[in-house]
Amino acid sequence: MSKTRASFWAVVGVLLLAGCAHKPAMKVDNSEQPYRIGREDVLDVAVWRDGDLSRTLPVRPDGYISMPMTGDVLAAGKTPTELAEEIKGRLQPYVQEPRVTVIVREVNSSRVFVTGEVARPGAYPLRGRVSLIQAIALAGGFTDFANSDGITVVRSDGDVGKIKVRYSDLLSPDGGQDVFLRPGDTIVVP
After folding, report:
1. Is 19 helix (H, G, I), strand (E, B) or coil?
2. Coil, strand or helix at 18
3. How far is CA 72 from CA 6, 75, 109, in A?
4. Where in the chain is the domain with CATH 3.30.1950.10?
5. Which of 56, 49, 61, 90 is nearest to 73 (CA)?
6. Cα(88)–Cα(18) distance, rounded to whole angstroms?
7. Are 179 and 114 in contact (CB under 8 A)?
8. CATH class of the domain defined by 41-106
9. How far does the signal peptide extend, from start to end residue (predicted)?
10. HSE (CB half, 13 Å, CA atoms) of 159?
11. Is 27 helix (H, G, I), strand (E, B) or coil?
12. Mind listing the pLDDT tens digit of every residue in the chain (190 residues)?
């Protein structure tokens, strides 16, 4: 390689590296939101060195748990750490330096509902990120009478309301994007 070519490539390399140095780094958000306890979840509440106060408790439909000495404690909407701190505060008048741990044993509050012309309508647990196509597969797929291009996803959180989906669009190469479900969503297949 001639000196001129080598010098040219060296200058190009320096310019490329200089350009990269001024480009702002892309920020990737890998943070996960802490889990919030929901109604019908099952919790393990452990009070260190006090087996009488440690127990496995279901979260009632009203969002509360009941424990000796603390009475009813609102659990729904709190993180396990927040709930442990509240229980600890309520136990302090009765237990010297209580150490409380709350572990979610069963997640029962995050569900989606599939109804209409599917093989197995019902409630299905929402474990991780579940798409509309995956939820229909969990429900056994469409029946022979299903109108797969008339699907409606009803949002219970009031964010969007109703989302109309054509299944054929989801499967086409240039079609629409799959809908990712949220807890409490209801999928209606006419």
Report:
1. helix
2. helix
3. 77, 9, 19
4. 41-106
5. 90
6. 56
7. no
8. alpha beta
9. 1-23
10. 9
11. coil
12. 566 665 555 555 555 555 444 433 333 333 457 888 998 999 999 999 999 999 999 999 999 999 999 999 999 999 999 999 999 999 999 999 999 999 999 988 888 999 999 999 999 988 888 999 999 999 999 999 999 999 999 987 656 689 999 999 888 887 678 889 988 899 999 9
Report the predicted TM-score, pTM, of the whole model to 2 decimal places: 0.60
**CA dist., res. 185 & res. 179, Å (int):** 11
CATH number at 111-188:
3.10.560.10
The residue count of the chain comes to 190
Q: Which residue type does 168 have?
A: S
CA dist 170 and 173 (Å) reads 8
* Collapsed DSSP state (helix, strand, coil) of residue 105: strand
